[in-house]
Known about the structure:
Blueprint: H1 2-11, E1 19-22, E2 25-29, E3 34-37, H2 40-70, H3 77-88, E4 92-93, H4 94-101, H5 105-117, E5 121-125, E6 133-137, H6 139-160, H7 165-184
Antiparallel strand pairs: 1-2, 2-3, 4-6, 5-6
Amino acid sequence: MKWLMAAHKFCSCAGLTGYARIPSxxxxxxxxxxAFARSPTDQIRADAERLSHIILEMQRCFxxxxxxxxxxxxxxFPQFFLLAYLDRKEVLTMSEIAKxxxxxxxxxxxxxxxxxxxxxxxxxxxxxxxxxxxxxxxxKGSALVGRIRxxxxxxxxxxxxxxxxxxxxxxxxxxxxxxxxxxxx
Length: 185
């Protein structure tokens, strides 16, 4: 519970007020709605509803911070996510970018063109097939990704400082499992 209060304080989210355990009932208070779970299935449902509220509030807080960090570089969220992905890869084709971003090749091309105009990526043609457009991140793009990642790490460290070492390991373990699940989809 200590970590939840830390995340709550860090994000200054006002909607979540916690929950209380009552014999044979669990009260879930997420503001104006209180749900009572009576069976294990209902308890899992109540827990899922509470987690969905927590996740939405945490995402809102983190996205607001990310938005402020991206604003000076005139980079959108999809553009930043592409830059972060490119920063971990050497080079990607336009088709790979479209697939990763869930866009058409034309939409991916527009995304890359904007980043290229800002000096964050470079396009070139493949040596073996001139029809293939290759995209790589520039040092300017890597610097932007590195700066924002450092700010994110700093924010996460603030949250981790409110957790015990066991809670820190548990958080990483759970998030790693969630990450692996999301990557498999």
